Amino acid sequence: MGAWSHTSFANDDASNWVAALNRRGASAIAQAFAAVPENDEEPLGAGAACAALAAAEVVAALAGAPAPNLPKKVTAWLVGKGAPTPELLEAARRAVKRVLRASELRDLWGASPKAETWRADVEGLLARLA
């Protein structure tokens, strides 16, 4: 994972996911959440975790609580889209909680001096999904 900062879209995996969102639309969101195992014993790689966080950011934006740093391609994709269903909001919350609880991404950031900044950013996303 090439990370540029602690925010959800500031890494190569999220950037690739945004490209998929623009190609496949809402199915990219569902696929990102489906790739997150519910069982904490199953591994959640950094790439899948980054995609899940990016997808959750899109859901938060659809719910009227966007991050201030949404990429222009995401902002353009959001135009004309409706509010997320309660099921999609729950899937987003479940994925973000899993990333925070047990993921390779959490472990990578945990070894960084920016660990608390990353955690606060992800917890802020979770709060915007409430």
Ordered list of secondary-structure elements with their pairings:
Elements: H1 12-24, H2 26-34, H3 46-62, H4 72-78, H5 86-101, H6 104-110, H7 115-128
Helix pairs in contact: 1-2, 1-3, 2-3, 3-5, 3-6, 5-7
Q: How is the main sheet built?
A: none
Look at the helices and sheets and give the structural class.
mainly alpha
Distance linking N and C termini: 28 Å
Q: Oligomeric form of this entry?
A: single chain
**Count of domains:** 1
Helical segment count: 7
Fraction of residues in helix: 55-70%
Strand portion: under 5%
What is the succession of H and E elements?
HHHHHHH
Protein described:
There is one protein chain. The chain is mostly helical and 130 residues long. It has one domain. It is 64% helix and 0% strand. It contains seven helices and no strands. α3 packs antiparallel against α5, α3 (46-62) packs across α6 (104-110) and α5 (86-101) runs antiparallel to α7 (115-128). It is globular, with a radius of gyration of 13 Å. The model has no long low-confidence stretch (mean pLDDT 95).
Quick description:
This protein is mainly α and 130 residues long.
Which terms summarize this structure?
130 residues, mainly alpha, 64% helix, 7 helices
